[in-house]
Amino acid sequence: MTGDRGIIFNIKKYAIHDGPGIRTTVFLKGCPLSCWWCHNPEGISSRPHLVYRRDLCVGCGECADGCAKNAISLTPEGMLTDASLCKLCGVCAEVCPAEAREFIGQIQEAARIMEMIEKDIPFFDESGGGVTFSGGEPLFQPAFLLELLDACGRKGIHRTVDTSGYADKDILMAVAEKTDLFLFDLKMMDPEKHKRFTGVSNEKILSNLVYLAREGASISIRIPLIPGINDDEKNIEQTATFVEKLPNVRDIHILP
Predict the structure, then answer these.
(1) Mean pLDDT, residues 105-126 taken together
(2) What pLDDT is stored for residue 77 in this prediction?
(3) Mutual orientation of helices 203-214 and 169-176 as an angle, nearest 10°?
(4) What is the pLDDT of residue 1?
(5) Cα(198)–Cα(48) distance, integer angstroms
(6) Which of 113, 134, 92, 124 is nearest to 21 (CA)?
(7) pTM of the full predicted structure?
(8) CA gap 104, 138 in Å, rounded
(9) Could you give the CA distance from residue 48 to residue 229 in angstroms, rounded to a whole number?
(10) Stretch 65-69: mean pLDDT
(11) What is the pLDDT of residue 2?
(12) pLDDT tens across 219-252, in order?
């Protein structure tokens, strides 16, 4: 994807938990982590994909009739899709009367997203809000994210990036120059345990958090508290010791 186009999987308006004030949250698709407790697993894959919910399917066959590639067939297991034939056109999801099929991920132009964001500027101005870029991991589509951050900056819109912190330093540096607030997820301090439960070590994440803090970025740390994984006394104490040494941390939020 180029900077003027990217893949998103949701836009949430009137969000009140994604930064200060009333916000519009744009969810960018793709994430290098695979957290066991992921709140938005549909955002992990970097590509658009179809989801089939058999429990909602009524077996009417509208999806098969609408598929130009004959990729869908009725089986004892439900309406199954042949991935080798499916072109991800999304027609089956559009025609499904039971909403058993959902097409997740849309290629969007930055200009089109800005049109939707700009409609909410009066709410931002009144509440001290703005735009939050989340995911997935927004830093996973750096060119697209930077394009959107630039466009919001030109309109005077407050910009927040909700991130796991897992990105190359050059990407983080470029994004930091155009971001007013980072919502930085801090999951656990033990690198081996972090890799076991998220798929990656936390070395790069902690290094990036230190970098942002020392460079003067405004940071709100968010800690998802997962029973049996990171809610032990040792991890909590190590996290507190690490965070208390960082400058420019405005607050810490525990996410249940």
Answers:
(1) 97
(2) 85
(3) 30
(4) 64
(5) 22
(6) 124
(7) 0.90
(8) 16
(9) 31
(10) 95
(11) 65
(12) 999 999 999 999 999 999 999 999 999 999 999 9
pLDDT for 256 equals: 83
Q: What is the dihedral of CA 186, 190, 196, 202, to 10 degrees?
A: 50
Single-letter code of the amino acid located at 194: H
pLDDT band at 76 (very low <50, low <70, confident <90, very high): confident
Both tokens of 220, joined, read 């709100």
Mean pLDDT over residues 23-46, rounded? Answer: 97
Domains of the chain in start order, with CATH, are 5-44+107-255 (3.20.20.70), 49-104 (3.30.70.20)
Give the position of tokens 């033990």: 190
**Total residues found in the chain within this entry:** 256
Q: What is the mean pLDDT of residues 194-214?
A: 98
